[in-house]
Amino acid sequence: MDGLGVEILMSRAAMQAAHGDFHGAVRTLKQALSEDPDHAGAHAMLADMLLAQKRLHAARHEARVALQLEPNHPSALSAAARVEMAHKQLDAAAEHLQRLLQLQPQEAVHHRLQAQLCALRRDPAGRRSALEHALTLDPEDEDTLAALADEALDRGDVSAAEQYAQDALSRRPDHQDALVAMGHVLLRRGDLENAREHVIWALRQNPSDVGALHLLASLKARENPLLGLWWRYSTWTNTLGDARQMLVVLGAFVVYRFLDIALGQWEMPRGQELASFCWYAMVAYTWVGPVWFQRMLAKELSDVKLDDDF
Amino acid sequence: MSALSGYRIVDEPRPTGLAAHVCNPMWVLLASMVAGLWLSAPWFIFNAFAMGSSSRVREALWVVAAPVASLTLLFLLVVARRAELLPSWAVPYCMVVIITTKLGLAYRVFQLQQQGYALHQYFGAPVRNALPLVLVGALLRPKVLGLVDSVIWLVLVG
C-alpha cells in the first residue's frame, strides 16, 4: 500500500472516530502505521484516538513519536498539546499550542484548544477571549458556538448559553456538543424531560459521547439525591488524579482509625461504635454506589436506538 | 491481518500462557485488606506478569516496597520507643501509620494494575472470579500470622 492508502485509512479512522467507534479507529490506524511507520499524521491521529480511550501513557508516546518525525506538523502539535493537557502538564501544552498558533494563526480549531487550556488554568477571561477570537475567524463554526455555550454555562449565564446552543443547532440540528449544552441549559431550568430528550438524541448518534453521558448521569443524580451525592463525590475525586485520590481515601482511613483509638483510650465505647458505623456506611456506600449508578445508566441507555448510519 | 498485528501500541498487554488466570486487581486489593501481604503481594505480581501489563516491572517494585517500608517504619518505632522518645499511648497510632503505608502501596499497585487490566479486558481476554480465593485467604489469615511468633512477621505478612 502506498501513501495514498495510508491517507484513505486515516479518512476511514476519522469517520469511525466521528461515530464514536474509537476501537475501530485505533485498529485502522494501526493498519496504516504497519504500512508506513514514519507517518507523523497517523501517529498524531492515533494519539488523539488513544486519548479518547483514556490511554494517556500510550497517547503521549504516539504524540512524541509524531513530533520526532515532524516537529512542525500541525496535527502532531495539536495532539501533543491535548495529551499534555490530559496529563495536567499545562506549561508543556502551552508550548506546543504556541508553536501551533504561530504556524496556523487563522485556524479556529486551534483557538478553541487555547480556550480549553485557559479553562484548565482557571483563566475564564482568556478562555472567553480565545473562543470569541475563534468565532471571528469562522462565525459559522458550530463547534465554536457550542464551546461558547459551554463557557457561558460555566460562568452561569444560562440565557447566553441557550442563545449560542440554539445558533449551533440551527446550523446543525444534530451537533453533539450543542445538544449536550442545550440539555444542560434545560437541566438548569428544571426541565428534566426535555433535557433527557436532548441527551438521548445526542446518545443515539454517539453512545460513547462523554459529555452526553455526563449529562445523563447528572439527570439521574438530580432524580435521586442519594445517587446525586455519590455522583458529586465521584466527579470531585475524578478531578483529583490518581495520587490525590489515594490520599483522600487513606486520609479518611487514618482519621477513622485515629478517632477509634482515641475514643477507646478515653473509654467512650458508644463513640467508637458510632465512628465504626459511619466508616463502614461510607465504605458500603462508595462500594455499592458505582454499581447501582451504572445499572441505572445501563437501563436508561437500553432505550437508545442507534441511527441507521451509525 | 498481518498488517493489524504489525504495529504495536506501547501499552498493549503482552499476554502470557497464564493470561486465563488473570483476575480483577480489585480482588487482590481486597485480599491485601482481609488476608494480608502474604497473599496479595505474590498475587499482584502474578497478575501483572500473567496479563503482560506494560507496567509489570513497576508494579512488582511497588509490591516489594511494601514489606521494606513496613519493616523500616517498625524499626524506627522500636528505636523511638527504646529511646523513650515515644509515649506508650502513641504506639497504636504509629501502628496505624504502618498499616496505612502498606494499604497505600497496595492501592498504588492496584491503580497501576487497573490500567493494564482494563486493556486486558478490552482485548477480550478471559477473567477469573477471585472471590473464593479472597475468602480462603481471609480464613487462612490467623493460621498464617500464627506461623511465627514475632511482631516482625506480623508486620511483614499481615
Description:
The complex is a heterodimer of chains A (310) and B (158). Chain A has 310 residues and is mainly alpha-helical. Chain A has helices spanning 3-18, 22-35, 40-52, 56-69, 74-86, 90-103, 108-120, 124-137, 142-154, 158-171, 176-188, 192-205, 210-223, 225-238, 242-265, 269-301. Chain B is mainly alpha-helical. Chain B is elongated, with a radius of gyration of 19 Å. At the A-B interface, α2, α4 and α15 of A face α1 and α5 of B.
Distance between the first and last residues' Cα of chain A? 28 Å
Please give the alpha-carbon distance between the first and last residues of chain B: 49 Å
Radius of gyration of chain B: 19 Å
Beta strand % of chain B: under 5%
Record field, number of beta strands of chain B: 0
Radius of gyration of chain A: 23 Å
Largest two-chain interface: A-B, 26 and 26 residues
In DSSP terms (H or I, runs of 4 or more residues), the helix count of chain A works out at: 16
What share of the residues of chain A does DSSP label as strand, in percent? under 5%
Task: Give the integer mean of the pLDDT values of chain B.
Answer: 89
Please give the number of β-strands of chain A.
Answer: 0
Low-confidence parts of chain B lasting 5 or more residues at pLDDT below 50? Answer: none
* Number of distinct helices of chain B: 7
Structural category of chain A:
mainly alpha
**Sheet with most strands of chain A:** none
